[in-house]
Fold these 4 entries.
Entry 1:
Amino acid sequence: MHTHKINNRLISALLIISSLLLSHVALAQEAPANVKKARWYQINITFFQQQHDRKLDESFNFEGAHMTMADSLSLHKDGNYSLANSGFNAPLALHHENLNGLSFTEQDIDESWIEIQSKLDPVKQPILFNAQWVQPVYEEKYSLPLYFESSLNSQNQSQLKGLLHLHVSRYLHSKIELQYLPKDANSHSEIISLTQKRRMRSKEVHYLDHPLVGALIRILPYEHPLTTQEKQLEQQQLEKKKEAQESALNARI
């Protein structure tokens, strides 16, 4: 009887393990299909401080930000990135696409964006955060937000931190959640929290305006790295074929 109970428990455990393995395999098989739907973009974003004019405060209506950091990605300089523990499908697809370590890796700011941000007044509109990177953008249920923070501090914490959400359906959509602590703040209670959602047009510069903090955002279409990889392989094959033909011709001569 005792042996029978142990066998039943063993069989139950094996069934559970098999079920989990099959579900993971199914998700892994689903990932490439999701990858094909992903669009890649180059993101440029610059946050800057505004000279506060209290007369404008009533003209702006923003929702408060309630940021959840657990399910987020972050930028890296070395091609390594962290993935959230949940949102399992998105990490699977991202692993498949990111074989070259390209996505969410911070890049040098290109000249066209330097020219755009040079129009900011360095005294009245000092830059708080400035970054450029490329990433795949999925439909909303597969997307994960990007966490960012300023290297500038106020009250022993980052002066600016937030989450950038991007997803695509028929159009490209963004949501920015921000927490901003002015440089001259006397306590953490002066943190300003805001959320803004927007439908985006790629190739255009979008402007987020608030009496204390502003942002410039540009999203450019970027070639899918798997497509780039395929083109490189095709080019290598053509070059090898050409070399073989030239070798055969030289041998005849």
Note: The CA atoms of residues 90 and 142 lie 5 Å apart.
Entry 2:
Amino acid sequence: MPPALYDVILTGQIVAGHDPKTVIASLARLMKRDAKIVFDLLQRDGQIIKRQVDAHTGQAFLKALKKVGVVSRLVPAQPASVGKPAKVIGAVPVDDGDRALRTIAPPLQPADVAYAPIQANRISGAPGGLDVNRIDTPPIRFEALALLCVHQADDADNVFILIFRLGQKRPYLCDANRIIFSDFPGTKATSVNASLRHFVRFAGRHHPALYLDPPTAEFLQGRPPAVLEIDLVRFTTTMAKALASAEDAPSSQQALDP
């Protein structure tokens, strides 16, 4: 039997007697993250900062976090979905109405460069959709979108979005700071993360059949962007193949609907 695995999560609390500013600075150094991002992480109970570690490694994380003044805990990791068919595991509200976006969690696939992301120069508005501002790509209508994924890179502080298009292997990759939020009414907010949430909701209102991956659904509900802990091309391969399978099999697509 394989060893039990755990996720390391923050409780949002600071160890008694520690100065909050010092704790944030120390945790930022420990995680190699900007202090503003660390402050955001500490605002929510249940933020996962390390996934699927064994008990010994998990306890080492708890000890290191406690040393800098952060209260954390271990929770059983969700079982891996490898070997199971892609499926919708839930839905997240788009707004205060009844519409919801579906979340899909396919099994991991080996990386294939044929599914490597294409860099978008920036994302701006276009009639009925968006423009990735590449000379080889015309504007994309919202109903042609298949999946949006918002993540944070593991080795940097930047937040990015992956835009998967129906019938296309390679998604578009764009740094969140290069989205012209003012082109999408009602999406520009006081922070990039807040603007990005509004942008995803905006796309979902225009195309309710849009998919999200589970970390993006959590982001939409207020959590910070999750760090993408697997190889980017492996991730895009996995998601694109799951979408292609759904498109090729209408009966399977119907089974995916909540």
Note: The two ends are 33 Å apart (CA to CA).
Entry 3:
Amino acid sequence: MDITGGCVCGGTRYVVNSRPFALVDCHCIDCRRSAGAPYVQWGSVRREDLVVTKGKPRKIAHADRIRSFAACCGTHLFFEDSKDSSAIDVTIASLDDPTPFAPQKTIWLEDKLPWVKIDESLPSLRRGGPASPSRRRVKLRRAKGYGAAGTNKHEFSERLTTDCADGTDLE
């Protein structure tokens, strides 16, 4: 089973060789800011099942995790707990056909924007949780000026009140 996806301009393409699992809508502030959207839908795949076929994503380390963006246009593509995690999360909207991958859970409702409507039929978590093997728990921390940070992989472990200069480009 090959599932294809890529960035908005077509400069970065990838293939997933298995069906994404642990399909979640994440409302955490980290996902919202990195995508410039009210929430992001993720699906996990085994690391060995994800192959970048064109371009080279730009990897950014932040909050002890790694986000990958298309270097050509900035589309948010992947999320990793670490460089050797067994699973990688893929932005479902970056798939060529995301329609078969409806969310199974909603996470980080404590960070949800007040005007976003939630599908009440889905299980939901106030914070994150171990929704896939790639997700790990981290120590709960209080974030200055932004309220409580949570315990799932998408949290800010430290938030700066000045700028985003704490992100480290891994390329």
Note: The domain at 3-169 is CATH 3.90.1590.10 (glutathione-dependent formaldehyde- activating enzyme (gfa)).
Entry 4:
Amino acid sequence: MKVIDRSFWIISLSLYFLFTPVHVYAYHPFYISVTEMALNSKTKSLEISCKMFAEDMEDVLKQNYKTPVDLDNDKMQMQNNKLINDYILKHFSINIDSKPTALKFVGFEKESESVYCYFEVLNVPAIQKITVNNTILQDYKQEQINIMHVIVNGNRKSTKLDYPSNQASFSF
């Protein structure tokens, strides 16, 4: 997959997804996730946030786990944490400098029509190459677009994965 820095379509889609009014999301004509991975040199960890439409996440969890899901329901918080963690671990993995990593689930939060899922990889002093496998929501809609941003020492690289593409590498 070709890595494109600061391309117009990535910025446009990201801005549309982030700033479009809530009423537009009742039906959304595209399926998109935005994952940002940033190396925190102070804590020596890779901090990961995945943003997607909450409705899509709820639907894919219901589809895969055959159980009711309501990300707004505080009484279902433990179940939601377990389902989200399990789903993301099955559909998202990272190799740093050709070594597999262990993703640690930090939590999730629902904000308006979006859900943010947070993970981290501990003990990452530096990154020269990162390879990401990302099939988040590709089992839900084949129209799924997964945008990824990686930031290492202030250097930002981005790419877009269209189904069935699911892997990208970034060198720093």
Note: DSSP finds three helices and ten strands in the chain.
